[in-house]
């Protein structure tokens, strides 16, 4: 059930086992995963179904160096779906090196590795409607089909002659 908080009487106390803040990619995925858990879940989003300029302004701010990064309100979205409503839909699995600690990055490294995530990537692709989990060159670009024969009779005859030469 989707409710707009503006339609809930002021002072109403909502109770749930779990409240997920943010109805972007992660929040929606978590809420869907818990749908059959028996838990009462509230998925809380600051925006509605469509863009709301006043709500989007909550992301407005200043930047120390605008040349290094665009303003957050230009690439993050406060609405149902979150920033995925701007997404081009490109999904890529992490590389093994992404999990490694790096001496030049404080607190880097993960407590898990790529092999811990691999079993979940197919399910994630399906949820995102990103097609088959095929991220190697061999999977993404299968060998091309042989060319179809020419339709022009003279070209076809020439091809046959060249084959017998």
How does this structure look, described?
The protein is mostly helical. The protein has five helices and two strands, in the order βαβαααα. It has helices at residues 25-33, 53-56, 114-127, 137-140, 153-164; strands spanning 18-21, 41-44. Strands 1-2 form a two-stranded parallel ribbon. Helix 1 (25-33) links the parallel strand 1 and strand 2.
Give me the secondary-structure topology.
Blueprint: E1 18-21, H1 25-33, E2 41-44, H2 53-56, H3 114-127, H4 137-140, H5 153-164
Parallel strand pairs: 1-2
What does this entry show, briefly?
The chain is mostly helical and 165 residues long. 26% of the residues lie in helices and 5% in strands.
Mean pLDDT: 86
The stretches of 5 or more residues where confidence is low (pLDDT under 50) are: none
**Sequence of strands across the biggest β-sheet:** 1-2
Shape: elongated
**Total number of strands:** 2
Total helical segments: 5
Relevant terms:
165 residues; mainly alpha; two-stranded parallel sheet; 5 helices; 2 strands; 26% helix; elongated
């Amino acid at each position: 059930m989707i409710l707009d908080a503006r339609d809930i009487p002021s002072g109403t106390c909502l109770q749930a086992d779990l409240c997920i803040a943010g109805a972007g990619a992660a929040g929606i995925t978590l809420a869907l995963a818990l749908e059959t858990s028996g838990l009462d879940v509230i998925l809380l989003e600051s925006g509605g179904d469509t863009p709301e300029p006043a709500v989007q302004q909550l992301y407005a701010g200043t930047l120390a160096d605008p040349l290094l990064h665009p303003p957050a309100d230009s690439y993050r979205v406060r609405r149902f779906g979150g920033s995925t409503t701007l997404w081009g839909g490109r999904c890529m699995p992490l590389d093994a090196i992404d999990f490694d600690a790096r001496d030049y990055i404080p607190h880097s490294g993960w407590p898990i590795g790529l092999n811990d995530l691999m079993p979940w990537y197919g399910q994630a692709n399906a949820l995102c409607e990103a097609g088959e989990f095929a991220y190697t060159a061999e999977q993404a670009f299968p060998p091309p089909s042989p060319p179809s024969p020419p339709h022009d009779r003279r070209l076809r005859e020439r091809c046959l002659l060249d084959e017998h030469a």
